[in-house]
Amino acid sequence: MRDQLAALPHVQIVSDRGDRVRYKNLLAGARFGIAPFRPGCPWSMSVIDCQGMGLPVISPRLGWLAEHIDPELCFTTPAEAVVLAERLASDDEFHAVHAKRAHASTADFTPGLVAARYMEAIS
Q: Partner of 100 at 20 to 30 A CA spacing, among 38, 54, 59, 85?
């Protein structure tokens, strides 16, 4: 899929090469993210990183991703994914709405709240 994406106009496949500053800068230069296509993926830090920076993320309608990603940005077919990607790339109003929703979806992921929830779960 990476090769197919890389062959599209205006798409660039890049790597952070393990450099966290480069990773942050790559995300800062992106318009939106694409969640992993792994059926068993229980969670994705990259999705959270994108959303925390206000980047909308499109996602297959699978597991945790379908529960966390805005339903309007979930897809079940490759054709639906293309439509969402095109819309996020070209429709500024749609993008702005979903950028705000993306950021808001991570608002309660502060270290204190996450730690409190963890402690509550194991108590």
A: 38
CA distance 117 to 104: 18
User: Which of the four pLDDT bands, split at 50, 70 and 90, describes residue 31?
Assistant: very high
Measured between alpha carbons, how far is 78 from 85 in angstroms, rounded to an integer?
10
Which conformational region is residue 72 in: left (phi greater than 0), alpha (psi within -120 to 50 degrees), or beta?
Answer: alpha
- Phi first, then psi, for residue 88 (nearest 5°) are -65, -35
**One-letter-per-residue 3-state SS of 85-105:** HHHHHHCHHHHHHHHHHHHHC
Distance CA 74, CA 61 (A): 5
Residue type, 24: K
Task: Decide: 90 and 67 in contact? Cβ < 8 Å.
Answer: no
**Nearest partner of 94 among 78, 67, 62, 70, judged by Cα:** 70
The whole-angstrom separation of Cα 96 and Cα 38 is: 28
